[in-house]
Amino acid sequence: MKMQQNSMAISESSASTFAVKDTGTVLVVEDDPRMQKVLQRLFHEEGYRVIVAGDGRTGLESFHTHAPVAVVLDLILPEISGRDLCRRLKTLSADTPVIILSAITEVVDKVLLLELGADDYVTKPFSPRELMARVQAAIRRRRKPAATTETYNFGACVIDFSRMKASRASEEVALTSLEFRLLRFFTANAERVLTREALLNDVWGYNSYPTTRTVDNLILKLRQKLELDPANPRHLLTVHGAGYKFVP
C-alpha cells in the first residue's frame, strides 16, 4: 500500500554517497517511499541530481524551482493526479521529457497518456536498465535539434516552434504539444518517407508501442487543422504500404 508523503525530499543531502556529474536534474514524482529510494539511487549512480516529490502539487512546485532535464512520474498521486500533472508540465515546457512509471498496462490508457504529451511509458515492475535507457533516450531527443529553424513556412501555414504557435491562412490554429513534436519531426525530415514505427520511436519515444493506429489518428488531426483540403492533403501525405511523407 502506498503512503502519502506531502513533503519534498531533496536527494542532495545524500550526494556525498555518489559521484554526481554535471548531467542535470531528474525530478521524480512518486509517493511510495521505497520506490523513491530505488529511483533516487538509480539516477544518482548515473550522475544525475535527483529531486523527489511525494505528491503532485509538490512535483509541480519542484518543476518550477529546479528546471529538470527529465521527469519520472507516477500516475497515482495525492493532491494532483499524475495525468493532470503530466498535462500541466507539458503546457509549461513541451520539450522537457516526462516518463510515466505505473502499473497500468491497458493499451487504451497508454494511448491516452501519450496523447497527453508523455514521452514514454514504463510499466511496474520495471527493469532499472530499461528505465534508465528510456529516460536517457528522451533527454537526448530533447537536446537534439529537430529542425534547422524555429519558424517554418509551408503552403498557407506558418509554424513557430519556439513559441508553440501555428497559423493557417493568417488564422491561428491550436496545436497540442504532441502535434508540435510530430510536425517538427516531419519538417526536419521533409520529403523522406517515414514509417509509423519510426514516428513512434522518434516522436513518442515508445519503442514497443502496441499499435500504430495512434499515429494515423494524430496525422488525421493535423491534416484537419493545417491542410486547406484535409481529404486531399498536399503536405502530410500517405505513402501506401510504407508510411507518411511531409512535402513543404
Structure description:
- The chain is an alpha/beta fold and 248 residues long.
- 39% of the residues lie in helices and 21% in strands.
- It contains eight helices and 13 strands.
- The chain has a six-stranded mixed sheet, with helices on both faces. A four-stranded antiparallel sheet has the order 7-8-9-10, with no helix packed on it. A three-stranded antiparallel sheet has the order 11-13-12.
- α2 packs parallel to α3 and α6 packs across α7.
- The longest helix has 16 residues.
- The chain is elongated and about 55 Å long.
- The protein starts with 8 loop residues before the first strand and ends with a strand.
- The N terminus is likely disordered.
Topology:
Layout: E1 9-10, E2 25-29, H1 33-45, E3 49-53, H2 56-66, E4 70-74, H3 82-92, E5 98-102, H4 107-116, E6 120-123, H5 128-143, E7 151-154, E8 157-160, E9 165-168, E10 171-173, H6 177-188, E11 193-194, H7 196-204, H8 213-226, E12 236-239, E13 243-246
Helix pairs in contact: 2-3, 6-7
